[in-house]
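From the pipeline queue, job 12 of 40. The input is one protein chain; the requested action is below.

Action: predict structure.
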Amino acid sequence: MKPVKTAKKSPGRPRSAASEKAILDATLELLKEEGYGGLTTDKVALRAGASKSTMYRRWPSKQHLVIAAFDSTPELNIPDSGDLYADMYTVIKEYIGILNSTTLSGVLPALIGERAHNADLAAVLDPLIARRSLPINTVLRKAVERGELPAKTNCELAGTILMSPIQMNSELGRSVNTRMIKPILNIVLPGLGYSKEAY
């Protein structure tokens, strides 16, 4: 009976999760501090304590690196309590927590500003931002299915209206906190056709 051949291990060392995190974190920090134009792979490598060859093996361009860094930031969960007001409060509260505990508040303006005149970046950034908006839109669609909002509600537009005050204040460097949530909901939700008594 012939001996069973074992599969050969692939050459090279496994990628270091700690090194990857350091590179992505450095990218986010520099995006916030210097914007897209001021960020260079040299600066990222220096701050992360990594070699440029290591970075280029994983991310072949600055754009790939930036998108990967943005995609490493926390994503929103999808609450489903059965009540639109409660679920929207939860998702906005979580978003505020992410803005205040990560570099996202500085990274988004840098990317959106660059997106306006960088078609290649827009092509990969737009689907990513759309995916990040999915929890908000899902909460609104579920409310439509339950009859809490009119059947013809434009959930994407409604989500943008609900999140815009938080995003705008964050981009302007103003304080963003949970005290903003109820006033936003109490103004916007009735305008969308939500008729339950506010909290």
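Job complete. Confidence is low (pLDDT under 50) at residues 1-14.
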